[in-house]
Specification:
The protein is mainly alpha-helical and 64 residues long. It contains 2 helices and no strands.
């Protein structure tokens, strides 16, 4: 036979458990956007450094 649930079993489950899941989704989205922005900044900074190096090499080349 199945046991009957009392009020004590229902009190163990929080009533607003779905709110925490929504906050987790916001945090995940924020972390994703932060990672994306930092990777874009890294790539742009790297391209700028390479461009400065290439520009310096061309200025040091002997005239043809």
């Amino acid at each position: 036979m199945a046991r009957k649930r009392g009020k004590t079993d229902l009190d163990l489950v929080p009533e607003h458990s779905h709110e925490h899941e929504h906050q987790t989704g916001r945090g995940r989205r924020l972390m994703l956007l932060l990672a994306l922005a930092s990777s874009i900044a890294f790539v742009l900074r790297r391209r700028q450094q390479r461009a400065e190096l290439d520009e310096g090499v061309w200025h040091e080349a002997p005239p043809a």
